[in-house]
Design brief:
This protein is mainly β. The chain is about 15% helix and about 55% strand. It contains two helices and eight strands, in the order ααββββββββ. The protein has an eight-stranded antiparallel β-barrel. A hairpin with a 2-residue loop joins strand 6 and strand 7. It starts with a helix and ends with a strand.
Length: about 140
Amino acid sequence: MILRFVTLVFVALLMFMSPASGQMIDSKSLVGTWAGILDIQGSDKSPVEVSFNSDGGFKGSAKTEKSGLLNYNGKWRMDGQNVLVDYVSTAATGTANVPAQGRSQWTLTSLQNNTLSGWGVRQSDQLKYDVKLNKK
């Protein structure tokens, strides 16, 4: 009887600590500052820093080789295991050959604790790119 109880507790602990348990993210753990990389194939890997606010607001910036400094302003929401982000990027003034504003969406999932990974799509040309973020 005691052996069964110990085995049951052991199995429950293993399930709780397994890598799969880190794959869900909730809105509380999402709120805060995240930093990472936007990997645009055929272009460059751009550093990005964003903040997910508790009210669903989203702000941040990225420094790209082509566009220079881009500022982000938008909204985020949870959809099952995914974090969906919809934002407008605004290029810093004086940036040549870059539209002043553009819309993008991100679809992110949690790989493990404090890590988000997924993809983004730029609406103007449907360019798809990788997004990788770590919580600061």
